[in-house]
Structure formats: structure tokens, C-alpha cells
Amino acid sequence: MSDASAADRVRAFYADYHARMGNTSGWPDMHDARLTYAAACREIDLIAAGSVLDVGSGEGHLLPFLRASGFRGAYVGVELLEAPHRSAVRRYGRDRNATFMHADFDALDLGDSRFDWVVSLGSLAVRQPDQAASDRRALKRMVDRARVGLALYVNDRRRVPPAWFDDMPRLAAHDLDALGELLAELGWPMVNLRWYAGDHGAMVHAHPLEPTND
Ligand SMILES: C[S@@+](CC[C@H](N)C(=O)[O-])C[C@H]1O[C@@H](n2cnc3c(N)ncnc32)[C@H](O)[C@@H]1O
Asked: Which CATH number do you get for residue 106?
């Protein structure tokens, strides 16, 4: 079941984000954004991949990175917030094999669509009252959509500078052991974990234990 107030918390977190942090995409600048995209794509065979679902696609900047890296497949970006969604459509909407959806992924009916890769770069970064339940719900929805792999960015709780929580009290930072256990429980064990971006950003990849059916 989706939780409308979870979406409201995400909206509230980003409401004055630009004014406070000086950027709209969640990364300090495009250099940092590209580091994130490169870390996400490190495990993905972009030539072979037929489709990517980008959960929390922001302003859509992952798409040109994927294209420049050889991805020719279908891209679907889902973004909760209207302003970045509009920006994505304005910038990248001419790509004929890309669709940008303005929607809450947690409540979105994608029918029986499946994607080779599901990517979530920061969509779990807003703290929720029951973080474990919220993560479980979101990750279950993601792995149910994925055939080959999942690429997930989270903030590592043990490495985020404590002062960040003064600036961003609603920032979610994850216990990576618990995240690994949750993914394993879902049948998608973590295959790799890398830290980058000031050492607090963690990129996790996961693949299904059992081959997924189409
Ligand atoms: C840190 S930003 C990163 C944006 C983009 N992935 C990028 O790397 O440039 C995370 C985005 O996830 C979006 N998001 C969070 N929860 C979401 C949900 N349930 N459905 C759709 N988008 C969501 C936020 O609105 C925000 O734009």
C-alpha cells in the first residue's frame, strides 16, 4: 500500500532545497551528479541493456549520460516533483525512446512492464518515520520491475558528516548491513558496494538469486 504522507515528506524536503543547497538535482553540482551516474553504470552493460527504469529521475540528467555511454534502449524516468519533471521533459523530452512520468513511484501502476535495470539514485534519501518499512515497500516495488539488476544510491549512515543532519534533519542515511539483509530477503543480494562522493555516498548493485521471468 502506498503512503501519501511519505510523498508529502519528500515534497517538503525539496520545497526549499534549491534555496538552501543551491542545486535542484540533489547533487552539489553536475560533476558530482556524473560521478554518481558513472558509479551506477559501472555494473551495467549499457550496450546490451534494453531498458532502464529511473526511479526519482529528477531533472533527467541520467538519460544523456546513458546515451553517451552507448545505451540505445528504452528509458522511463519517474519523478514525484513537478518542477524537475518539467525540466526533464524540456531538456530531454525529444528523445524518442524516453518517457518521463510525473508520478509517485510508490503509487504508480506500471501494469506488467519490466525493465532490464531499475536505477534509484537518491529516491530513498528522505527520512520516513518507519524507514525500514518504507525502504522495504519501495525496494520490493523496484525489484518487482527489474529483470537483470538494481543500482541504488544511498547515504551511508556511518560516514555522513554529522553536521549534515543540522542542515538537513530530514536526510535519510542508511545502515548498509540492514540494507544488505533486506535485499537478500527480497531475493536480490547485494553484489557490490562502493563508496565515493566524499566517501559517504554508497552505490549498491543487486541481482536476482533466481532468474526473473518476463
Ligand atoms: C537526490 S534526487 C536525484 C535525482 C536524479 N536521480 C539524479 O540523480 O539526478 C532524488 C529524487 O527522487 C525523487 N523521489 C523521491 N521519492 C520518489 C517517489 N516515491 N516517486 C518518484 N520520485 C521520487 C525526488 O523527488 C528527487 O527528485
From this structure: 3.40.50.150
